[in-house]
Structures are given as C-alpha cells and as structure tokens.
Design a protein that fits this description.
mainly alpha; 4 helices; elongated
C-alpha cells in the first residue's frame, strides 16, 4: 500500500528530483558523516539496502515538499 508521500514521488513531474534531493542533502550528510547523497545514489544502483535507504530519504523529501507546497497555498 502506498503512502501519501509515495504517491507524490510516483506522480511524474510533481517535483523535480534535484529539488527533492536539495531538501534532504544536508540532513543525510549530517546523519552519515563521510558520505554524500551522491555516494548513496551510486551505491543504490547495485545494493538493495542502499536502494531502500535512498527510497526512505526520498519519502522524507516528498513529505517536506508536500508540506512546503501546502504552506504556499495558504
């Protein structure tokens, strides 16, 4: 079952991937010292664990983008 955030990530064109990554990059790198989001993206292409970690971080980004969008609509 998909969550609200997952639906936003699946709908093409809702948010640019670069924008979503900008919403999580600093927090990811703070939580994973010595790693970059680019490192994770590269490893995700061949590692199931890293693919899941990247998916989870992108869900956070989707939720942040949705929250920012709601604030702008008010």
């Amino acid at each position: 079952m998909k969550t609200y955030s997952h639906q936003h990530l699946d709908s093409a064109g809702t948010w640019d991937r670069t924008y979503l990554e900008s919403l999580i990059r600093e927090d990811f790198e703070r939580c994973h010292p010595g790693e970059t989001l680019e490192d994770l993206k590269r490893r995700a292409s061949f590692s199931r664990e890293d693919r899941g970690l990247l998916r989870d971080w992108m869900l956070v980004a989707g939720a942040r983008a949705a929250a920012a969008h709601q604030v702008k609509e008010r």
